[in-house]
Amino acid sequence: GPGVGAHERDRAGALQRHRHSFGGARERDRHLTWLTETSLTIPRAAGLWVIGAAVQQERYDASDVAGFDYRFTTPGIFAQGTLNLQRSLSLTASARVDLSQRPSIARFYLVVWGLFYAEYVMVPAAGLLA
């Protein structure tokens, strides 16, 4: 049967540095945003699955003013399923979850298990596969 397909890795980032002057006061700061993501494509007889993980970070560092620095790191996972129902008809659903939000994790698993159920139970039973 179909095996594991392509593995992809993506990275992106942006850095901004500012030097502000307000009257005689100098304010320097730095903004950093970066993202890294990896995904795996899994071909199936009835369609295609893509699963993956990502991490994003937003950071602000104020060199001359105290109390405004922050750093937010957000890990996440995602899945997408595409079912080929007929030659010119497919059904695609996807879910992505922020792992720092517990209610989002529960919703993500419900969607993914629903996709598996559709691929292996509902669609074959209805005779919709191409």
Question: What characteristics describe this protein?
Answer:
1 helix, alpha+beta, 130 residues
Question: What's the gist of this structure?
Answer:
With 130 residues, this protein is an alpha+beta fold. The chain has one helix and five strands; from the N terminus they run E-E-E-E-E-H.
Describe the secondary-structure layout.
Elements (H helix, E strand, L loop, with lengths): L6 E16 L2 E20 L2 E16 L7 E17 L2 E10 L3 H25 L4
- Cα(first) to Cα(last) distance is 16 Å
Structural class: alpha+beta
Number of E-state strands: 5
Strand content: over 45%
Mean pLDDT: 81
Poorly predicted regions are: none
Helical fraction: 10-25%
**What is the makeup of the main sheet?**
5 strands, antiparallel
Shape: elongated
| Radius of gyration computed on alpha carbons | 22 Å
Strand order of the largest sheet: 1-2-3-4-5
Per DSSP, the total helix count is 1
The SSE order reads: EEEEEH
